[in-house]
Amino acid sequence: MKKETDLDNPPTDKSNDSQSETPVEETQPKDQETTATLTPENNPELANLLQLGNEFDPSITSFEKKYHNQNIEFDASICFMDHYRSSSKVYKTRWDFLICPGDYDPDSQRGPNFKLKNQSFSTLNIEGNHESVKLGDNIRITARVDSYEQKAVFFI
C-alpha cells in the first residue's frame, strides 16, 4: 500500500457556491504557461530518469535545467530517514528523508536520489497515521524540481 505524499501542492479552494450561475473563467498571465504535473506515464524523459543506473549520468542535470520549478509525480520509497539535527539539537518532530524512485529494495536502487531536509509530517502533507511512516515505505510523491547537487548525487 502506498502512502500519498504531496510536497509542493498549494491548497485549493473547494467551496461550491451553488447560487452562482455565471461560470468563472480562470485566466493566466500571457507569460505563464499552464503545465501539467510530469509523470513517468506522460513524460518519457522522467520515465528514463527514474530508471537510470548511474546517479552521475549527465541527463539528470539536463532534466533539472529543462524542468526547473516543474511539478513531478512518481512512485518512490523512503530509503533513509532520521531526525533532523542542527549543530546543538536533535529535533523529535523534524526529519531528513532520502527518497528513491520505485519500490524499496535495500540491495538495489535506480534513478537519482531526492533529499528532503528538515521536514515535518504536516509540511509533507502525508495522509494517514504519521507514526506509521518508516524506512522502506513505498510512497507516491509529488514534488517540484528545484536543483540537483551532482557532487552529492541528489535532488533537493
TrEMBL record:
UniProt-listed Pfam families: DUF4839 (PF16127)
Superkingdom assignment: Bacteria
Chain segments carrying region Disordered: 1-42
Classification via InterPro entries: DUF4839 (IPR032290)
Protein name: DUF4839 domain-containing protein
Species name: Arcanobacterium phocisimile
